[in-house]
Specification:
Chain A is mostly beta strands. In chain A, about 0% of the residues lie in helices and about 50% in strands. In chain A, strands 2, 4, 5, 6, 9, 10 and 11 form a 7-stranded mixed β-sheet that branches. By secondary structure, chain B is an all-beta fold. The chains are: A mainly beta, B mainly beta.
């Protein structure tokens, strides 16, 4: 069974740039959630994708957007980067049927984004 | 008021001690409760997952949920240096199509 993978591991960008982070979900999972974890804080929910559609969103501005592909992999895009966007970005995958509770979420290693 | 409150520590204990980690929450709709372990610069790793109130044991780990008090705990028996990590509690109203709310994490160091 393949776990959740994320790329790249580390990324340095400058303010105002755009970034794309990628996630491959665990085998058998169809739901992907993205979280932002600032240093010394718990993960904060950005959004979730289920069957290629956004299925819940946290308190993040529209410049945070995402995609889920038919193979259930996912991208997180952040436009107009700000210094406060510097954080560990975590992807978590899970399985959902749409009519019953899912199994819980399994996290990837994260992408550490630094905005200068 | 935050949805989930967790004492950030740091907590330092000698090897073999019993460790108690706790979270409180405000949303009575939460039904699913998780504990994750996170090593430095790594993603969170699922330790325990419980539904509603009660206890769940897995090896040296025991999770307790008291929904009437809105309080959850993780106990680690016979703590080991390899248990040194940050422990995050997380909870959700529904696992399907809903977000997880995390505590800030408690940093634990087990001293050999």
């Amino acid at each position: 069974e393949t776990g959740v993978t994320q790329s790249p591991t580390h990324l340095i960008k400058t303010r105002g740039q755009q970034v794309t982070l990628r996630c491959s979900s665990q085998s058998g999972h169809n739901t992907v959630s993205w979280y932002q974890q600032a240093l010394g804080q718990g993960p904060q929910f950005i959004f979730q994708y289920y069957r290629e559609e956004e299925n819940g969103r946290g308190n993040f501005p529209p410049r945070f957007s995402g995609l889920q592909f038919p193979n259930y992999s996912s991208e997180l895009n952040v436009n107009a980067l700000e210094l406060d966007d510097s954080a560990l970005y975590l992807c978590a995958s899970s399985w959902a049927s749409g009519s019953s509770p899912t199994d819980t979420q399994y996290f990837g290693p994260g992408t550490r984004l630094t905005v200068l | 008021q935050k949805e989930v409150e967790q004492d950030p520590g740091p907590l330092s204990v000698p090897e073999g001690a019993i460790v108690s980690l706790n979270c409180t929450y405000s949303n009575s709709a939460f039904q699913y409760f998780m504990w994750y372990r996170q090593y430095s610069r790594k993603g969170p790793e699922l330790l325990m997952y419980t539904y509603s109130s009660g206890n769940k044991e897995d090896g040296r780990f025991t999770a307790q949920v008291d929904k009437s008090s809105k309080y959850i705990s993780l106990f680690i028996r016979d703590s080991q240096p390899s248990d040194s990590a940050t422990y995050l509690c997380a909870m959700s109203a529904f696992l399907s199509g809903n977000q997880f709310y995390f505590g800030t994490g408690t940093s634990l160091t087990v001293i050999p």
